[in-house]
Each structure stands twice: as C-alpha cells, then as structure tokens.
Amino acid sequence: MKRFKICRMTGVLSLVLIMALLMAGCGGADKIVVGSKDFGESIVLSEIFAQLIEAKTDLTVDRKLNMGGTFVCFEAIKNGDIDIYPEYTGTALTAQLGMDVITDPDEAYRTVSNAFDEQFGIRWLEPLGLNNTYTISVSDAVYQEYGIETFSDLAEISENLIFGAEHEFFDRQDGYDGLTAAYNMTFKGDPQKMNISLKYQAIGNGDIDVTDSFATDGEIIQYNLHVLKDDKGFFPPYYASPIIRNDTLEAHPELEEILNLLAGMIDDDTMIELNYKVSVQGQEADAVAAAFLQERGLI
Known about the structure:
Number of domains: 2
Shape: globular
Order of helices and strands: HEHEHEHHEEHHEHEHEHEEHHHH
Distance between the termini: 61 Å
Strand order of the largest sheet: 3-10-4
CATH superfamily of the largest domain: Periplasmic binding protein-like II
CATH architecture of the largest domain: 3-Layer(aba) Sandwich
Helix content: 40-55%
Mean pLDDT: 89
Number of strands: 10
Largest sheet: 3 strands, antiparallel
Number of helices: 14
C-alpha cells in the first residue's frame, strides 16, 4: 500500500512538474528581450523601446542592457538571445555587411534593410531620426569670432586653429587625413592626439579649437560646442533604427506599429539632450526614457 501511495504521489508530482514546464513555455512566448550596446545612447534608446512595449502591450520585457559592442549584440540577435536592439546604418554597412560607405542616407537604409532581411532574418524598422555620425565641433570662442557654419567655412580659417582628437580618428579612412584632403584644410601646427576621454576637456580648456564629435554626444551641450555642417557629405550616415527578428514580428506583429511610433521622433538635438542627462548629469536611463515618452504622449 505504501509503495502504491508513493508511486501515486510521484506520478502527481511529475504531472505538476510537466504542467509547470508547459506553462513556463507558454509564458516564454509572451516575453520580449531588448538588448543594447555598452554606451549611454544605446542604453537609453533600448530603454525607450522596452517601456513603450510594456505600455502598449501585455508582453513581458526582459532587458539585456550594456551587453557589449556591436558584434556582441549582433550575434545575440542572430542567435535569438535578444529580439530587439538599436543599430546604425553606417555600422551595419561597414562592420556587419563589409560593404563600402554609402553617403546617401535613404540608399544606405534601403541597402542594410534588404540585406539584413535576406541574410539574417532581421527587420529594420523606421529610422528614429538621429544621425550619430562623425562631425566636427568648434569651441564657442571660435564660433563667436568667425561665425562659421560649415566644414568649408572652417577650411578657410583652419590655419589659425589647433585641431585635436582621439588616436583612432587619425587611423580611420574617414578620419583626419581624408577629412583634411577632402576640404583642403591646413590646421595650425601638428594635430593634437589624445585619449578620447580628454578631447572635450581640451577644447573646453582652450588647449585646442576644433575636434571631432559624434553628432549626438552629450558633451556638445556640456562644453557649449558648435557642430558644423558637413556640406560635402564626407562622413557616412549613421541613422539609428530599432532592428528586430522576423520570427519575433511573426509572433507579435503589433510590435512593428508600436515601435514605429518613434519614427522621426528622436532627432539629433533630442538625442544630445537625452545623452547629456545620462552621461553628464548622471540621471538614470530608465527615468530619462520614461520622461521622454511621457513628454511625447506615448505613454
């Protein structure tokens, strides 16, 4: 009799365990994993995606933020470890697809969108609006003295100004040598090469007059810099979009419409402000994301 009871209890426990596993599996189908790269802008954008999905659906959102660089996130989305993360057209073209630079932003978007869909089963949703490309910034003192607005304007007075940037900028095809050749710039003395963490301090202290920037760096506000227009289109476009696995969209097609609510909503100035709040002021990314979504009436 005892053996019968033990067997019966074991059977019941096994049934309960099976039911629990089945229920867990069903719950997994209603879970979305949002990832990000290991820098502030990517983390903020991913947090915006996550909170928007949570507000507009009944899906559970897991966050894998600050994962690492481009290839960490790219491998994760290809392998199904994450469903969504923000990517840039210039990065996709050159780093992930190994293609030549395309300077036309619409053509670049079409090219990466088609290639990712065909090769990886990943969909590029509509661009957010920001273009986090390289650009050139000048100090407020330079701007006030010369009133320059474009790279070509800068070229005309470059012999009076000191240029400084991080070491990597001097090793890139689209870096210092290419830039100065394209615009016929001749800066004063040898360019100053330094660690990336020091270049904004250097221009803020007046040790240099001109530096490279990413167009949406929060330090642009911190040091009251003026971003010049790349009037010859030297730097490739780095427009940001949410990218998402096709099988995730097949399971949850509503996500495309929801995330496309952000299309064109985050331009360069908006992203600079969001980055400034996180990178310079030290605000939490989730709070900054929530405030943005509330201000835009999205949650």
